[in-house]
Amino acid sequence: MTETAPAAAAPQATAAATFATRSPATGERLAEYPVHGPEDISRVVARARTTQAGWAALPASRRRELLLRWKKAIAEDLDTVARTIAQETGKPVGDAELEVVLTLEHLAWAARNAPRVLGRRGVRTGLFTVHQRACLVHRPLGVIGVIGPWNYPLYTPMGSIGYALAAGNAVVFKPSELTPGTGVLLAELFDSAAPEHAGLLTTVTGAAATGDALARSGVDKVAFTGSPGTARKVMAVCAETLTPFLAECGGKDAVIVTADADLEAAADAIVWGALSNAGQTCAGVERVYAVREVHEELCARVVEKARALRTGAGADAAYGPMTLPGQVAVVERHVSGAVAVGGRALLGGPAAVRAPYVAPVVLTGVPEDAPAMTEETFGPVVTINAVAGVDEAVKRANASRYALGAAVFCGSGRTGAAIAARLRAGAVSVNSVLGFAAVPALPFGGSKDSGFGRIHGEEGLRAFTSVQSVTVQRFAPAIALTSFAVPAATRERAVRLARALHRRR
Ligand code: NAD
């Protein structure tokens, strides 16, 4: 998208204001989008509500068919989608293609599994309810407001959008102001695949004020992905109307490397996990705790691999520019701060932090209370600290205000899984990094400053439903307890029976 004409798929804005997107690499103007305000959003949400009624009434198999048609449309237009992502974020086209591929996997899983996961399910009744048939039903919530970030502008919001639609909801999507084109394209492709349900997924564009208006618009849930600071603001708005809220925020993910780990594999994964997408990955590797015996060798291998990477523009670059210009100052503060308090730069250092391309930085010996260890850096920087053993590594990994993902490199998968169980993280990969993000059946999300709630997997489908419990009385009960006409003797018999049963153990 190189024109500056307003994007077609976004609804007409009542206000005349527009904003432009720019290439993070060159500053070149890419396109212009309307700034949608409260009135526009009210209109879009009302339309979504009408459309949703028809969508929810469809048999689940028909919704699956239409979502798979949308998936096919995205796959057929993969090149355009990847190019749009690459233009808006600056990431290499190959990375953007991988993002689309992962997105397709998730959409396919949500579409195919929603009927099974959300279908009516019978449950057993109890001693005093044998006369009832009981079941639970997952009902869509209605209209979901999705507020997305810029770092994975397709994959991340699809974790909410695809699953919410599969569960029978409509979605109003507010992408980041840095990546509106990707959001607009996504809705356009939905409309082209399911024109009879146009309005079910609408992308509105704008910055914080547009997101705020969406949170205030009466949607039935807000699914937010972004920084914890913004999550707090949006949650406060949702609290006013008790609108349910889901928060997928940042991370400070740790990797633990044990003495018997395959150091070559660990170094390879750490370099990719820390530096791909210029380190702008919520569950990217930011801290490594390596046991003392292997610390030096691991550092040497990481430095050698990171040094060999080419950063910059073009398809052969390992990673591209910092997408958010303001983030460079945060990275600079973390790297300079780490060095100022005794950390050593094994590669890069403060001089490597230049806009828009930040060269890889590998640090060691950084005090645990330095901002480089406590705050999300969101840049191509990794710290590798030595620890006495696994216990210390686990303690340090868990001593973060974030708790999103983690990884363990260990000679035995079984021991790795035992270490994983001690980690306070929403997801852990053993002998790989970010393995969990590519398995659609696995829920994703964190705790503490990383947010709460889960996207992906069965939990990610249920997150966009409310469960309704239903009983159907099959015959009049022998011991009726829900009537004023129950004789005292019947009640006493029930109490005797319950006491006899529950006293046993
Ligand atoms: P951000 O918090 O600046 O913005 C996120 C979204 O919120 C944007 O669409 C923005 O326009 C909107 N927004 C800003 N102020 C708002 C307000 N007052 N009311 C409503 N909406 C508002 O985050 P970002 O810089 O776009 O994204 C980077 C952050 O996202 C990082 O912390 C990263 O770790 C996190 N992230 C988390 C995940 C995850 O799944 N856990 C995935 C990707 C990114």
List the main descriptive attributes of the protein structure presented here:
505 residues, alpha/beta, Aldehyde Dehydrogenase, Chain A, domain 1, Aldehyde Dehydrogenase, Chain A, domain 2, 7-stranded mixed beta sheet, 6-stranded mixed beta sheet, 20 strands, globular, disordered N terminus, binds nicotinamide-adenine-dinucleotide
Strand content: 15-25%
The ligands bound in this entry are: nicotinamide-adenine-dinucleotide
Relative helix content: 40-55%
Count of helices? 16
Report the radius of gyration as a whole number of Å.
26 Å
Here the CATH topology of the largest domain equals: Aldehyde Dehydrogenase, Chain A, domain 1
- Structural class of the secondary elements? alpha/beta
Please indicate the count of domains: 2
CATH superfamily of the largest domain: Aldehyde Dehydrogenase, Chain A, domain 1
Overall pLDDT = 95
Ranges with pLDDT <50 over ≥5 residues?
Answer: 1-8
Got a strand count? Answer: 20
Region (Disordered): 1-20
Keywords: Oxidoreductase
Active site: 248, 282
InterPro entries: Ald_DH/histidinol_DH, Ald_DH_C, Ald_DH_CS_CYS, Ald_DH_CS_GLU, Ald_DH_N, Aldehyde_DH_dom, Aldehyde_DH_NAD(P)
Please write out the topology.
Blueprint: E1 18-22, E2 29-34, H1 38-57, H2 60-76, H3 78-89, H4 93-118, E3 121-123, E4 132-140, E5 143-147, H5 155-166, E6 170-174, H6 180-193, E7 201-203, H7 208-215, E8 221-225, H8 228-240, E9 245-248, E10 253-257, H9 263-275, E11 285-291, H10 292-307, H11 327-340, E12 344-347, E13 361-364, H12 371-374, E14 381-387, H13 390-398, E15 402-403, E16 405-409, H14 413-421, E17 427-430, E18 447-448, E19 451-452, H15 457-462, E20 465-473, H16 488-503
Parallel strand pairs: 5-6, 5-8, 6-7, 8-9, 10-11, 10-16, 11-14, 13-14, 16-17
Antiparallel strand pairs: 1-2, 3-4, 4-20, 9-19, 12-13, 15-18
Helix pairs in contact: 2-4, 2-6, 3-4, 3-6, 4-5, 9-10
Bound molecules: nicotinamide-adenine-dinucleotide.
Nicotinamide-adenine-dinucleotide binds next to helix 7 and helix 8.
